[in-house]
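pasting for ref. prot 1 ->
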Amino acid sequence: MFGRKKDQDSGGSVIGSTTIEWESQYKEGNIMWKVPRLIRLNDNIVIREDEIATFFRDGKVLTYFDKPNRYALTDFNAPIVGGLLKFFTGVEQAAEVYYLQNRYIDGKFGSQGPYQFVDPVLGIVNLRIFGEFRWKISSPENFVNQFVGTFAMQTSDAIESRLKEQMVLLVFNAIGKMKESGMKITDLASNLQNIEQVVLSNAPSNFGQYGLEINKISGLTISLPDEVQKAINTKSEMSVLGVNYMQYQAGQAMTEAAKNPSGGAGSMAGLGVGFGAGSGIGYAMAGQMGQGMYQPPMKQCQKCAMMMPVSSNFCPNCGEGQQQVAQKPQGVTCPKCNTIVAVDSKFCSHCGNEMKSG
C-alpha cells in the first residue's frame, strides 16, 4: 500500500514491540509508506533525514516526527512522545504511522483533454500542454489529512495523478488570464517563461491546502494543431518578405510551378517561367495585386522568356538586350466617318463605307 513496489514487512513481532523503519529499497519511486501494523507503546520509530513519520488515527494526524532520530515510545518525559501515550492503551485505539518523503520530487504533467483558446484571428484553437515540476511536502499534517483522510487515496500513483491534474489546471488558468490581457496564439511561444512564472505565483494558494510546495516549473510546451502551426509559420514568412497573404499565396504558387517540370518545359517557357523567372514573375504579380490589380504592358525576354515591362531594354533576369520590334498598326481610319477600324476590314463597322485596300 502507498507504493509502487512491494511493501516491506512490519520489521518485528506482531504482538510485541519492534523497531520501525522505512528501508531504502522500498523508498525509491514512492511518496509515502504505511507501516503495515498498528504502533504500540514499546515500539521504536527510526527517522532519517529524508523522511517524516506521521501518526494517524480516526481520520486525522495526531502528530509527526520530522527530525532524524530514533524515537522510543517508552520515554514518558519526551514531549513529542508524551502526547501520544494516551492513545496507546490497546490495539483498537493504537495509531497508524505513515512515512513521507522529506525531499524535493520531480514530476511531469500533461493535459489529457484540449484547452480551447479563442483567438481573434484563428478562432477556436485546441491546445495541449506538457511540462515538468518540482515539489515537496511542506506540511505533513495537511498532506496526510487531505490525501489519506479526505481523498482516501491508497497509492503513490493516485496522489501523483491528482497533483498533475492540479498543475494542468494552473497552466490553463494562467493562459486564460494572459489571454484576457491581449495575448494571442502567435504570442504563446514567446510567453512560455511568463506563463511558468504566473503558475509559480499561483501555486501556494492552490497547493498549500494539500500541504505541498511547488519549487519549480520547467520545460513547458504548448502544442498547437498542425494546421494552426502551419498558419503561424506562414505569417512569420510573410513578415520577413514584407507581403500580405494574397501576395504570399501568388508568389508561392508561381514558385512551385517553376520547380515542377512535369507540366512540360515548353509550355512553362511559353508562360515566361524558368526557375529564376518563376520566382520573379510570381512575386512581381503578387506586387501588382497589392497595387490594385493594375498591370503595365509587358513583353517577353527573347532569351529566357522572363516577362518585363515593354520599356525595358535589357532583361532583368538574364541581362539579354532586347531588340525593338516595330509595332504593327492597330487600325485604319474610315475616310467617310473617321472611325478607327481593323486594318483588314473591307467595310466600316460604323457607317458601312467600303474600305479601299492599299
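and prot 2 ->
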Amino acid sequence: MKNLLLSLCMMVFTNCQAQQVDNLLIKELKDKIADKTYPKIDAIVVKQGDEIIVEEYFNGFRKDTPHDTRSSFKSITSILAGIAIDKKLMSVDDKIGRFFPELKNEAKRNISIQNLLEMRSGLNCEEFYDIGPECEDKMSETDDWIAYCLGVDLIRTPGVNWSYNSNEPMLVGEIIARASGMTVVEFARQNLFEPLGIKDYKWTLSPKGQAQTAGSFYMKPADMLKIIELVKKKGHWQGKQVVSADWIEKSTNCHIPIDFSFVRYSKMPEAKYESARYGFFWYKEKLTYKDIKTEVLFASGNGGQYIMYLPDYNLTAVFTGSNYGNWRGKLPFEILLKYIIPAVEKGKDK
C-alpha cells in the first residue's frame, strides 16, 4: 500500500508533497479533464513556494511543447515596457508623438504611454464585449501592422474609458523598439528571456517583420511560469534585478474596473463574483467561494491561457487550453476554486 501511494504521488506531482497537497482532489481533477467535464485543458502547472506541486499535460501537449499564449502575452509586453522605462529609454508620461514622427494627428500624438498600457487611449477598437470594431483581425490583413494601429480613429479623450484591444500593446512594442534602437524581438531576448533562461519560443511577425506584442507568441508553460515567478519575486531573478520592483508594483496595481468577471463566465453558480480590475496589461479579481476569500493577479489569453499569482497561498499557476472563442476558456477559475486552492488548504492540515 505504501508503494502504491508513493507511485500515485509521483504520477501526480513533480515533487511528492503529501503534507502540502490533497492528492485525491488532484486525482479527481485529472479524471474530470480526462472525461471532458473540463474539455480542452492542455496544461496545468502549479507551484507553491519553491515546489512544483502539479504539472500535467493533456490532449497531446507535452512539457516541451510551446503553446500559443494568445493575449496573456500582453502582460509580458508590460514587463518589457517596465525594463525600457527602468533603462530611461521612455516614461509612462511620454506622448506617443515622440516616437512616431509620421503621426500627424495632434490629438493622437498626445496619447501617453500610460494611456496605452491601461487600454485607455481613446482609439476606436473594442475586442472584449463583442461590440467592435475588432481591430486585431483587420490589422492582421495588412502588411504594416503599426501603420494600421496608428491609423485607427480617435473617438474619445485619452484616459477616460477602458476599451480592450490589441492595438495598444502593438504600439507599446513598437515604442520599445524605437526607443531602444533594436527590434522588440532582440530587446526581449537580451533583457528578459535570456536572463530567465527562456530559449524555446516563437514570435508571430507581420509581412514587414513587426513582432506581434499583443499575442500569438508561442512558449512552454514552464517558461510562462517563470514570468509569473519573476512578478512574484518583484522583478528579481537568480541574483539579478531584471525589472524594478517599483515597476512590478505600479503595473500590477490594478485599479480600473472593467465591468467583467472571469469567475462569472466560468459559470460557477455558488461563487460570488465582482468586476475584475485592470492595470498595465494585467488583471486582478477577488475570488469568493465557500470559505475561500482571496485575490488573484493574472494574465489572460483567449482559449484559456492564464498566468496567475495568488499571494495568500504563495501560489503561482499556469493554464493553457484550446477553448477558443467561448466561455469554457474561463474554466481555469473553477478549477482553481474547486480543486487547486482546496487541495492546498486541505494539505495544510495533514
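The radius of gyration is 20 Å.
The chain has 13 helices and 13 strands.
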